[in-house]
Give the backbone structure.
Amino acid sequence: MTLKKMKLIAAVILFSLSSHLTAQDSYQAFSRYDYYTSEQFGEIIVEVPESKMGMSIKVDLVFEYDFVQKGYIVPAGLLSGVPFPMERLHQGDNEITCSFYENEKWIDSRKVNVVLRERKPNEVRIDRTSGGLLVDGLPFFPFGFYCYWPVQQTLAEEEVVKGFNMMSPYWKIEKKNLKERKKFMDRCAALGIKVNYNLCSVAGGGGAGSQKDKDKSPDELKSLLIKEVEAFRDHPALLSWYISDEPVGQGVSPEELQEPYDLIKELDPYHPVSVVFMTPAKAREYEHVMDIVMADPYPLPGGSVMEVSRVISMLKQEFRYEKPVWIVPQAFGGNEWWTREPTADELEVMTYLALINEATGVQYFIRHGLSSFPKSAAAWGNCGAISLETAELIPFLLSGQTLSGLIISQENVQARAWYNKGKIIILAANARNEPAEYTLKLPEIAFSGEVDVLFKNRKLQITEGTITDIIDGYGTRAYQITLKEDIHQERAINTANLIMDPGFEEVVSPGIPASCYARPGHDKGATYFIDSRIAFTGEHSLRLNTPEKGAGIKLSFYRTSLPGRQTYTLSVYGATGQSSNNYEWHKKLFGKGSWQENPEKPLVFQLSAGDITSEQFTLSEIWRKYEVRIDLTDEVSDSTKVIPILELLSKGTAWFDNLSVVPDLELRSDIDAGKNVIHVEISSTHDDVRIFYTLDGSRPDSTSAEYISEPVEISETGLLKVVAYKQHEFSGYLEKEYSVH
């Protein structure tokens, strides 16, 4: 990618980026990611005070006395990404000087540390612009739960199919249960679940069953910590290290956490460290011993759900562009100070209030099914629904592009708007258990038209940037405004396609593809989800995960009726990518080993047209088109039922898009009654083909009459037969009888 193209990409980011720029009148600059690995270009994120409006602001980036970017124009009042090539940077810390110019005059400079490390397959990075994570090369929004140890049997399988992607067991680090922890981690990797790995018992203590062992000396605890990090730092299920549970309440000082934190970062600089706080006002004191800030306000029934908003808002303001902020919603109750659990609506509104205040991770306390915490299956089921809704919203929630100036008519309704690729998402939540009528107004967006109410399967009108709606008590809303379509025209769906929802864009139930049946395999943890983070065409793809070879889900798509005496092409685009299920354990000397990617074990999937035809294909890392020909030349029926079937046979994760069934050849007829003839135009749905035809009933081949552009003239009753070739390979057949009276 060229530097010029990087500038164009960065320019797009400037759309009303941040409503959170501080009132300070100083320039700010920071590295977008906490570290880089194999990227060609990096980004320095700069913040220009709003008071500089009207000035020409430019930025220079200097590394080791030489420019890596010069005269880059940035607007005032917004957050901007300034790109630079990474080729000159060396491993480790790299100091880049970011200089600001007002009307061609130097005014200020900032020193920015850019960290470069060797690439690792399971690296986890922090995107400081959004507070999100980059996992397996894609934006990742952790949405999961704490659980007791030992983890209840089949809990991981039961929850991954609901959309949860993270777990954090309260285990105690002991040599005797190392095999059980490894077994759990291996299963999570196969299911595509990431783990916020609990090291509390050998680091900062606290938690349900993860307290420090008082019988062990500091040296023994340190030795256990080192062995645990070394054992799992390369594991594909590892997301982060969890080192302390409510340290202030446990009387654990920042100084006590410094040594374990430093030791973990020395042994594994590729994964962040998390700490949860029951007293979030004290979190700043622990800034040097954590990379992720978690908070666990448990307000019900004695308090208000607004406590969640207050806590996340405070932490986000404190750690913006520095550390991700995660929420631990209350999913328990019935004893101690909590006389009951939250209802399904309360769980939903607390989670949405956290998202609206820009939490970028959700880890409920606590899930220990089936009838333990939370006891209400309906309440917990609602949490699963929210996990899928959140996954659908990832391109917005982790875009770092919030819109400023949103006006809300009801004081009990909180809302926030995000922009991404020509669309606006507004999330709203009613913090009171009473229905309300309200309006949301975007003063700088004078748009009128339809608005999609996501996850409710309805639409409403927006007039001059104003939405009016009714929201139930503790209700939530997600509105999508389409300002412009952002679809690659060269990747558009073929207009001759006979498949319903071929690009998986119909999001009625979040995360679930429409117009298909799911046939389960042997592994109940196999999953199929719509993925909004990656697509070949449009905005979604279909992600299949098969935990074990031959045990995945078989998806049968809505059947279509095809006329006989012709051929069709069934096709789909597919690709692999990084995922926790695409690794294998490679043993080394002395029984040790490491998790590595397995290009020597490519992923295989099967594409079928019911019982008519079937073929297996090997996937690659880039999007490719895979085709199966449906031959109905011997069928005379006008309604042969064809059911496309897709199945990932190999252990691993793959993405699919643009499922298609098209006739290889198409005819369009025009009757000239005056001359008593029929003019037939012939076309192919494939590119770069040659078409040949006959009118005498014989089967055409490359020696028959070639169709160029002029319509075929039929003046006598007979059979038109057509064949197509692409580079001498058969590419379609069609025959049709015409009756001339």
